[in-house]
Every structure is written in structure tokens, then in C-alpha cells.
Amino acid sequence: MTSSDNQSYGGNEAASIAAQGSATAVSHGNNQYSFDNKEDRINAAALLNFFGITDDWCCTAKDQMVLLGAPSKSSFYRMKEFVDGKTEKPPKLGRDALERISYIMGIFKALNILLPSERRAAEWVRKENNHPLFGGRSALDVMLQGRVIDLADIRRYLDAERGL
Question: What integer pLDDT is reported at residue 30 of this predicted model?
Fold first, then answer.
């Protein structure tokens, strides 16, 4: 990543990552975090983006827990404390949570390409869909089944809609 690279997802409270020398800064709202440890940078950016996206989608804490793969309540609230700026070091995320967040970020990105209005993209997630993948349910209802494959299926569907 070069110092000009910047990546963010999720409304006004999105995280952005920018390389600065040997450390990388992660920005969130008015907070700026700097991590020398690559794992901390990844975990911080993943959590900040995940909660920004799911807040845009009006997800409840229970929804967020399902989307993250059902972490314990104490683990979930440690994640929230970091995002809310109450702790400086992000909790360690497992591979499953990182994979889930990656799919959610991809879904968010695809929606914002297909539906260039943030409001319409957020509404699409909750809107009933008659495509066979959804069976009259919303994309969020499908994602809330709790399986990684459901996130992957929605990501593939949106990528196909984009012509990828």
C-alpha cells in the first residue's frame, strides 16, 4: 500500500487506512489510530468498516452478532468498545470473522456501485427480492441465517449483476 492508497466503507463513520512510514494510520471519525502491528491494523479497519456498514443498514446488535459469526457477548462488546473509541487496541479477530467482514465489505461496495445512492443501497439490503437466491426474502434476511456461504452467495449475485 502506498501513502496515496485509501480504503473505506460505510457511511460517515467509515474507517480509512493510509500508510505512514513504518506504521499505518487508521482513521475513524475524529479518531486516528496508529499501529505498527499488521494484525492490529487489519482488525481495526475490519471492525470500523463492519460497524459503519451495519449501522448504515440499521442492523441491531443481535444482527451484528449473527453477521460476525456469533461471537460471545463479551467479545462482541469488546469490539464495540474499540469502535466507540473506549479502547485503543482492537480485539483479535479470527479467520471466520475476517472472512465474514470481507464479504460484507464486498456486498457494500457492490451495492454502492450498482445503486449510487447510499440510501438506496442501504434500502436494498432490507427490501424483499424475488430472485430465486432470496425467495421473497431480503438480502439481510438471507445473511442473518448465519452461514458464511449465504454471504458469499449474495456477494456473487451482486458481482454478477455488475457483470464481473
Answer: 56
